[in-house]
Structure formats: structure tokens, C-alpha cells
Amino acid sequence: MSVYTPVSESQLAAWLKDYPVGAPAALEPIEAGIENTNYFVTTGQGRYVLTLFERLPAAEIPFYLNLMAHLARHGVPCPAPVANHADRLLSELNGKPAALVTRLPGRSVERPGELECAELGALLARMHLAGRSYPAYLENPRGPRWWRAAARELQPLLDAGQKRLLEAELGAQSGRRHPELPRGPVHADLFRDNALFQDGRLSGVIDFYFAGVDCLLLDLAVCANDWCLVDPAHDLRLAAPRVRALLGAYHALRPLTAAEAGAWPRLLRAAALRFWISRLHDFHLPRAGELVRVHDPEHFRAILEQRAAEIAPAWLA
């Protein structure tokens, strides 16, 4: 959610004439994130988020927008895309594919506890259950195929230790597609800053633009590696009470299988590998932008090494 494509107030006003939301009253760039250009937009009829898609192939964007619309119709608190007067969720602004979605209330929690992790687990289960009836298909765009392509690009830019770890983990994950695990649409990027809380309750999940079809367990692994660390700055072990709160609340709605229990350690490593590679890619091969936020790749290198060293990471039981 960086700003790569500037939008002026006059450009926004002209674009919004095609939408049933009224004239704009405020336009504010969103600085967090790294993938798309995003603005908060306020009109006389409500608060919205404007997204200009910078890298996503135009053919893939309907998968994300229609998924959010599908989940919102099923009671999942996520941004609802707004259709224009031609009944289209996607249009163009400043030469980029663009969409307008509702802005959800609340704010992210920096230090989640067991209660917040339980709220997250329950919401993930609801989201996965609702996703079973979503008919569109898009393979996880940041899955193993992307890992290997990005690793080839990064190879000349890494030091010897990074190369060894990357090659070893790609080898360990090679061919592990886990066909025995339940699959469906996953968020795949549900970090703390993509969940909003209000009055102690989870009020919304945002930023579905890394979503795709994969093992449902992957969403839980991504969340555990961010929400359940003993101390994100100093101790990257999993805090067992928070992991059990996350998994227990999920399991109560969508029971986890024995196969998922067996795959949990490998999925935790896969989730760490995915974000280490993406952060390496953004660090070494950045894009120019007005406001660009690049995350430190070493954080997820350390998480990956920790998960690879753990004998029995925390699980439900």
C-alpha cells in the first residue's frame, strides 16, 4: 500500500462521477505496505479506500474483488467493492486499473494476546467456510512457483549464507504440495496490520490482493508467524497459549484434520520462506514510488531458521 501513482483531487472528482458515492470531501494517501497505490477517500456518503493496481495482471484482479464481494455477502467483515454506474467493480484511473471499496472501522493491534488470536482464528474459519462456495480459481500467486522464479532473480544479489539457506529450504519444500490437505481461497497475507479491532472485537480484515487458492492451513501458519511470536523483536519462538487460542477458535468452527496437524511444522516453514523471499525481492529489486515502505528481510530469515530448528512447534493439543 505505497503511493506509486499520484492522484489529484480534481482527478478523483472526475473519476467518482461514475460511482454512486457522491463528491469527494477528502483524499489521503496510505503509506503502509509496498504493492499498490492506496488512498483513503471520504465523500458525503461514506468512507472508502481507492486502490490503483500497480503490478497485478488485469486478468487476475476480478478474482480478488469478487472474492471480497462474496465474503462480504456471507457476513465476513471485509471491504466490499463498490460497483460503478456500469455495474463494474474495476475501472481505470491515471492509466492504472482501479477499484473503490468500503473502509472498515477499527485499527490494528500491535501486541495481540490470546483473546485477539482467538478472534482471528474464528474469523479465519468463517472466511474459509464461506470461501467454499466461491467459484473462481486462482492459484496462490506467491506459492512455490513464484518462490523459485524470485530465487533465480535474487541469486546474484545474495551472500553465501543467504544462498545456502535459500537453496536448502527450497529443496526441503520441493514437491510438497500437500494434496491431502483441505484447500480453498486463502488471504495469505493476514499480518497484524491487515486486521482491524474495535472495542476488543475483530471488526475487519483488509488487503486481499495476495489471495489465492492454497492449503487452508497456510493462512493459519502465516498468522502464527506474525501474531504468535513470544517477542517479535527478541524472541521468535511461538507463544504456545496464543497459537492454541488461534487454532482452537478456528477448530471449533472448521475442525482441523490429522493430516493438517502433521503438516503444521512444514507449513510454518513454508510461510516463513514465502515472506523471506518476498522481502528479499523488495529489498534488492525495489520499485520507485513517492512513498515506499520496504520491510527488513532479516526478520523472516530469522523466523525461518527458528522454525527449521524447532522439533515440535506449538499445535492445538
What do these coordinates show?
This protein is of the alpha+beta class and 317 residues long. The protein folds into two domains: 9-102, 2-Layer Sandwich (Phosphorylase Kinase, domain 1), CATH 3.30.200; 114-309, Aminoglycoside 3'-phosphotransferase, Chain: A, domain 2 (Alpha-Beta Complex). 41% of the residues lie in helices and 17% in strands. It is built from nine helices and eleven strands. A five-stranded antiparallel β-sheet has the order 1-2-3-5-4, with helices on one face. A hairpin with a 7-residue loop joins strand 1 (24-29) and strand 2. Helix 3 runs parallel beside helix 7 and helix 8 packs antiparallel against helix 9 (297-309).
Structural descriptors:
5-stranded antiparallel β-sheet; 317 residues; Phosphorylase Kinase, domain 1; single chain; 2 domains; globular; Aminoglycoside 3'-phosphotransferase, Chain: A, domain 2
CATH superfamily placement of the largest domain? Aminoglycoside phosphotransferase (APH), C-terminal lobe
Per DSSP E runs of 2 or more residues, the count of β-strands stands at: 11
Strand content: 15-25%
Tally of DSSP helical segments: 9
As a percent range, the share of helical residues equals 40-55%
Overall 3D shape: globular
Element string (H = helix, E = strand) = HEEEHEEHHHEEEEHEEHHH
The end-to-end distance, rounded to whole angstroms, is 37 Å
